[in-house]
C-alpha cells in the first residue's frame, strides 16, 4: 500500500508533463491542426462526384452520406461536375440556362424510381433535389451546396492568409460592426429572403453568384474573427507552459 501511494504523485506528474507537452505542441502548430482537416473537409465533397464518374459508387455514396446531415444538398443549389451544365437552377432564378431544375425533374423522378415518404418535412420537388446524386449525362452533384462550398473555402483562405507570420503578428480580430455588416448581413438577407419567400412575399430564388459572394464573405469574416483570438490563446498557452518547464528544469537541476 505504501509503495502504491508513493508511486501516485510521480505518475500524476508524468501525466501532467505529457499533457503540457501536447498542449505546447498544439499551441505552436494549431493552424496546421485546423487547416489540414478543413482542407480535407473541403476536398471530399468534390471527390464524391469524381468517384461517381469513375464508377466507385460505394465510396462516393459514403461521402454523400457523411455530408448529408450538414447541408440540404438540393440539386438546384449545388454544383455539378462532368455533365452538360455545372448548375441546374430553378426557373425563378432567371439565369437563362439551357436546362433548369424543372426541366430535369422528370428525369430525376424516373431515375430515382421511388416516391417521397408520406411524412417528408419538405415538398416533393425538394425531396427529389436532395436525393438525386447525378447521372452520366447531367453530371454528379458536389456533396455540399454552392453557399457551403464558398463558406468553407472562405474560412480556409482566411486561415492561409492568417498563417503568414507578418499578418499573424499585426492582425487584430475584426470589429464586431464590420463582422455584422459584411459577414452576417449579406448572407442573412440573401438566405432568409429566399427561405421566407412564398410565405411573406413573392417567391424568390437566389443565384449562384449571390450564394458564392455571401458565402465567401461569411467564411472570411469568421476567419478574421476566430483566428486572432485563437492566436492569443496559443500565445498565452505557450508562455504559461514554457514558464512551467523552465521552473521544472531549474528544480531538477538543483536536486541534481
Automatic annotation (TrEMBL):
<feature type="transmembrane region" description="Helical">
    <location>
        <begin position="30"/>
        <end position="48"/>
    </location>
</feature>
<protein>
    <recommendedName>
        <fullName>DUF2085 domain-containing protein</fullName>
    </recommendedName>
</protein>
<keyword id="KW-1133">Transmembrane helix</keyword>
<feature type="transmembrane region" description="Helical">
    <location>
        <begin position="209"/>
        <end position="230"/>
    </location>
</feature>
<feature type="transmembrane region" description="Helical">
    <location>
        <begin position="149"/>
        <end position="165"/>
    </location>
</feature>
<dbReference type="InterPro" id="IPR019206">
    <property type="entry name" value="DUF2085_TM"/>
</dbReference>
<dbReference type="Pfam" id="PF09858">
    <property type="entry name" value="DUF2085"/>
</dbReference>
<keyword id="KW-0472">Membrane</keyword>
<keyword id="KW-0812">Transmembrane</keyword>
<feature type="transmembrane region" description="Helical">
    <location>
        <begin position="177"/>
        <end position="197"/>
    </location>
</feature>
